[in-house]
């Protein structure tokens, strides 16, 4: 898969959420000088409750501490869904 396969479903002030597939949900945050997207995995429950936590700085910080599995940066644009930890 590629970062361009991401479908945004909801926007917050600092991040967006969406999905790559029906089983892979992610939070997108724009980083760096060029607003390059980075993606971190979130659970389906987190996806479904985004409106509750979208302005919660601690929750966002928790997700930002998770590994980036894909981004718009060179050499990080593609990933194998099977390699992402459950």
3D architecture notes:
This protein is 20% helix and 31% strand. The longest helix is centred in the last third of the chain and has 8 residues, at 57-64. It is of the alpha+beta class and 86 residues long. The chain has one domain (3-73). It is built from 3 helices and 5 strands. The two termini are 17 Å apart. A hairpin with a 4-residue loop joins strand 3 and strand 4. The radius of gyration is 12 Å and the shape is globular. Strands 1-2-3-4-5 form a 5-stranded antiparallel β-sheet. 22% of the residues are buried.
Write a concise synopsis of the structure shown.
By secondary structure, this protein is of the alpha+beta class.
SSE arrangement:
Elements: E1 7-11, E2 16-19, E3 25-31, E4 36-42, H1 44-48, H2 50-53, H3 57-64, E5 68-71
Antiparallel strand pairs: 1-2, 2-3, 3-4, 4-5
Number of extended strands: 5
User: So how many helices?
Assistant: 3
Side by side, the strands of the main sheet go: 1-2-3-4-5
* Uncertain stretches: none
If you compute it from the alpha carbons, what radius of gyration comes out, rounded to the nearest whole angstrom? 12 Å
| Count of folded domains | 1
| Outline type | globular
Q: What is the ordering of alpha helices and beta strands?
A: EEEEHHHE
Main beta sheet: strand number and arrangement? 5 strands, antiparallel
> What fraction, in percent, of the residue positions are helical?
10-25%
Q: How would you state the average pLDDT, rounded?
A: 92
User: What is the distance, rounded to the nearest whole angstrom, between the alpha carbons of the first and last residues?
Assistant: 17 Å
β-strand amount:
25-35%
Structural class: alpha+beta
